[in-house]
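## Example record

The block below lists the input lines for one assembly entry, exactly as stored, with component labels intact.
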Amino acid sequence: DAGITQSPRYKITETGRQVTLMCHQTWSHSYMFWYRQDLGHGLRLIYYSAAADITDKGEVPDGYVVSRSKTENFPLTLESATRSQTSVYFCASVSGLGRYEQYFGPGTRLTVT
Amino acid sequence: GQNIDQPTEMTATEGAIVQINCTYQTSGFNGLFWYQQHAGEAPTFLSYNVLDGLEEKGRFSSFLSRSKGYSYLLLKELQMKDSASYLCAVYNQGGKLIFGQGTELSVKP
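Predicted structure tokens for the full assembly:
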């Protein structure tokens, strides 16, 4: 019972490079979310998805791209990484079937140099 | 606009009771969540309130007043392992949560 996993757990990249963070859940949950967590800002929603092939912007979507071709996967891509994107990224999911609590992955700590 | 306020830091003594407050002003409201987050870890679900009143779950209780835009998390019989950040989040629409900045709770012996 893996639940929700993220990879990589740690990543260091250079400014301008493309980076993809992976998120995989084994529950077949409908909704999936990407957050970033920074000191002084709390958790901020980047993108979310209500189902496969349905995605929408959250509070801070600029510089990020998502896709959801399969229910269980929700990758987040930084097209051209910037230092301001140094953060901890969390993926989350919720079943949407009368249950609303979100379950979070372990997080990816990304450093952009 | 969306605004969720909680104290930044709190300190309490082991064995005591602590109350963490959260006030909110959001354009939509479908319930309020509390999450616990230990340093370096992911948030974990503690409670969900959608109706006014108190929900009790072991040492943790959560209260909601929708008319006042107010909630609190009550932690009883504090233990050292309760030292963590506590996040208040409003469930808006479409499954989206709006988070407060979190309250860092330090439990001292």
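The interface with chain B takes residues 31, 33, 40-45, 48, 50, 56, 58, 90, 94, 96, 100-107 of chain A (CB under 8 Å). Chain A has no helices and eleven strands.
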